[in-house]
Amino acid sequence: MYSVLIVDEEQEDRARLQAILKQSALPVAEVREAANGEEALVLLSRNPADAVITDIHMPKMDGLDLCARVHKLWPDCALFMLVGYDDFEYAEGALGLGIQGYISKPVTPSMVLRTIAQSLGSGQVAEEQSSYIPFSVLEGALQLLDRGVWEDSEPELDEACRLLFKNFGVCSLAYCRRTAEELFHILVGKLSQRMGYALDIQLPPFTGRTHNELYQWFLDTEQLIIRMIRNRKRNADYNLIHMAKNYVKENYNSEVSLVEVSRKVGLNASYFSQLFKAQTGQTFVHYRSKVRMQKAMEFLSCPEKTVTEVTFEVGYRDITHFIRTFKKYTGLSPSQFRLQNGIGL
């Protein structure tokens, strides 16, 4: 039976890991906790552990420093590191520190058991996990999936599938399924962070019995997430353009520019210009002119207003430019418009 030390600043995370270990089939007799690296070293000096699971970011002494010291003082101790979405590059500094596995946050029971079963050798669990995919491969596949799904890029999605299923061929089906599910859960978390709100995506259950069926499930799930992102993006784009149009309507009498409106909706000017044309079928400048001309016709319907007054009230500073634009839009000069509509006669 083995002893394990969990090192994490967050008490809630330590409790979750402890519960996973105690409820598992792993041969773990004792699970201790420490809130930081210094506290962990004190506990280990009194009673060494067979394995240490440590977070990478902690006060006083971070996970990398702790692993370096534990590896030097207790070289037989198995080391596992908890890493978040943005810790992959930082975790590269752990090379040579004897770390035997990485556990992605937020932790899941299958991820924890899959990672540490190799070292703690738990009969059925260890046998099931005897073949596993290297951390670097999972990281690479996740990055490709992230870019491929977000940018709807077929080449990167194809490469992610090739990378994963090249390695899946030597793993048990149960392990492959769990790994694929965890990758998708992490991916949905990353996409939710990027979009600023939670994506409620329910992964379809896998009921197949072969690696080929798992491959098809992987492709179907990939397309499900892409459709969800595409729909959310489309709705978000529609809302942004709706905001932009309202802003123009509210500020028709000022020097409202494409750059100003694009900033208001949080987009760069070039992308905003393309998106506006795609969503409305007209350029931003044409839409702004249309709003101003509609207001101009409304004001010209008031006989007490002069053409000069109307020119300035709809945001123009040059009466000649206003008259030219009005005639282009209506086919009439302001005076002809009034005459045709019996205004001021």
Automatic annotation (TrEMBL):
Signal peptide start-end: none
InterPro entries assigned to the protein according to its UniProt record, in alphabetical order: CheY-like_superfamily, Homeodomain-like_sf, HTH_AraC, HTH_AraC-typ_CS, Sig_transdc_resp-reg_receiver, Tscrpt_reg_AraC-type_HTH
Keyword DNA-binding attributed: yes
Highest taxon above the source species: Bacteria
MF terms (GO), sorted A to Z: DNA-binding transcription factor activity; sequence-specific DNA binding
HTH araC/xylS-type domain: residues covered: 242-340
Residue stretches making up the Response regulatory domain: 3-120
UniProt keywords, alphabetically: DNA-binding, Phosphoprotein, Transcription, Transcription regulation
Modified residues (4-aspartylphosphate): 55
One Pfam short name: HTH_18
GO BP field: phosphorelay signal transduction system
Annotated protein name in UniProt: Transcription regulator hth arac- type
Species: Lucifera butyrica
